[in-house]
Amino acid sequence: MQKKQGKQSIVFAVPPYVTGTANIVGPMEGQGLLASYYDKIMEDTIGQHPSWEKCESFMLEWAVKEAVAKDSSQMDEIDYILAGDLLNQLMSTHFAMRSLGRPFLGLYGACSTLAEGLLLGSVLLDGGFGNKVAVGVSSHHDAAERQYRFPTEQGVQRPPISQWTVTGAAGTVLSLTGQGPRITVATVGKIVDLGIKDPNAMGPAMAPAAVDTLWQHIQDTGRQPAYYDMIYTGDLGRVGKKLVIQLMQEKGLDITANYEDCGCMIYRGEQDTQSGASGCASSGIVFTGYLYRQLQAGNLKKILLMGTGSLHSTTSYQQKESIPCIAHAVAIEAE
């Protein structure tokens, strides 16, 4: 059976089940709009750990372990762990994996990592290479700000277009058998770079990549936007979300009725996050909490989750490079 459809999409012959999810967040996320959908809310952003990076490692390890436990599985039943974060050399992820003792593939897709992990995990299971895969993502506001922008202690004023990196981690278990929503189709994104160089403007930089992937998904699968109850991007924020709607309208499609961005769903307006949330954990905590429960309850039947990633680095910024971006999409459908 030919599983590739069109130019960039995959139709799974044996769609994997999403059988377990878990998340952990920092205090600011716990004060936001989706507080009741988080498994664990930390009292502060460091806990009992000596650094922000070690706190992030703890969160990711906890989320993967908790997702496996909620799947009623043992860690040795997990064939592969696919995981990533925002830091150099996947620092938080690699240290989180030390105690888990499972075959591991590190992923760097920036904030698209959750969708990339779900996509690749589904490929592994559908291809017969295992029975269970765990996918994990994490981000930490203070650690990411220190690496990519300014030390938080410096108190640099953020422009209105900027976003707030989520402190949190999410774990997901995919299984060949079980119950729950299934990943039926995926569309692999390609790099889109329209020349934006401002690292504060990640939403505008990533929006064209999201539109490119969504448009290709439609062309490859024949599924119009109305096929889905909701279409979600990962972390474009309010500015990027508006651009996606505008760019899709220019292609003759109005998605305003069933489109939302995870980065606009996490914080309250008075929390001073400017354009909204960003980070690997943005789509991570929204999917493993709110969206997964809505799918389980039958309130959502079909969603398209598009992880969006801004693939710049501190080095590329200092060398005056523009920001290459990507978006991957996975269709998740409840039976």
From TrEMBL:
SUPFAM superfamilies: Thiolase-like. InterPro entries: SpoVAD, SpoVAD_sf, Thiolase-like. GO terms for molecular function: acyltransferase activity. It holds the Pfam family SpoVAD. It comes from the Bacteria. This is Spore v ad: stage v sporulation protein ad.
